[in-house]
Every structure is written in C-alpha cells, then in structure tokens.
Amino acid sequence: MDQEIINEINKKDKTALVIWDVQKGLVDGIFNKEEFLANNKKLIDAAHENNIPVFFSKITPLPERFESASRKFFAKRRKMNWPSPDALELEIPAEKEDVVIPKNTASFFIGTNFENMVRNAGITTLIFTGIATEYGVESSGRDAVNRGFYPIIAKDACSSRSQEGHERSLKNMENLLIVMTTDEILEMWK
What we know:
Layout: H1 3-9, E1 15-20, H2 24-27, H3 33-49, E2 54-59, H4 69-77, E3 99-103, H5 114-120, E4 125-131, H6 133-146, E5 150-159, H7 163-174, E6 178-180, H8 182-189
Parallel strand pairs: 1-2, 1-4, 2-3, 4-5, 5-6
Helix pairs in contact: 3-8, 6-7
C-alpha cells in the first residue's frame, strides 16, 4: 500500500470502528467463532485506548406488516429466523461510550443517521468487522467508498455461516477496498 494512503487512513482522530451485527443468533452460527470474538475484542480495546469511536450495528426487524416482500423472501431463502428476542442481543457488549445503531438493511448508510454522525465528527476512515462478510460488511464497505470514505475491512474479525462465502467476499473486496488483518490495524495504530 502506498505511503500517502497509509498516512491518510492512519489518522486516529478521523477513524471509527464499526462492529457489524454481532448478535447472539448470528455469532452462534459462524465458522470461526473463537478467532472472530478474540480479534473483535482486540480491536475494540485498542479503539477505546486510542479514543476511536466504536459503532455497533444491530439488526432491528421492522414490524411484519411494514417489512418489504423482497426482504422477507431473501431472509426466508437464507433461512434467517430469530427464534427468540435473546438472539437479537449483542454477543459483544457495547461500552457506555460506544454507539449502538438499530438498522434493518444490509448497509449502515441506509435508514440510519450513521453517515451524518461520522461526517459531523470529521471521520474519514471506517474500519469494518462483523457478520456476515458477504452481506452487510461488504455492502457497507462498498457504500462507504462510494460516499468518499476510506473503508478498511478487518478480514480476520469478520465472519459468516459460510466460510466459502466469507472468503469469496474478501477476495472481491481486496480489489475494491482496503483489506487488512487485525494485527496490521493494531500495528498501524501504534
């Protein structure tokens, strides 16, 4: 990666960490649960130490009557069901200073105030982790670059039910976005 980009994305006061959909009902079904949780903890702890804001997205389904037919169709096709309210709770608890934003699409920029919040704070670099790599993480990362942000995907702090889908998505994103390991991000923050 060229030094000019590294200098731009390494401004801690212009960086936020986005933890995507780490809800119990999703975390229980991923292929790399221990590594995923450990790497997210490292990133969250380092973000707090460096005064980098941490945002959690939280799937908050619309009432049945107001949910779109297409979203119902695709959720059913992916066998998405939320057997209990507990399944929607965050597996990684948010700290008092963290921001939890309810959302109901696969992009953090649609239907939320996330973009206004980060722009108001002068944030230009967004580091994404979470579940599922090939759905919300990739969608939000693509949206971020299209909106003028520097998206970084923490590849070993992302996951999916499908290891194949996760790896395919990372390969796609390597051509479009910045993809780094947790250790590379932590080293950058030193």
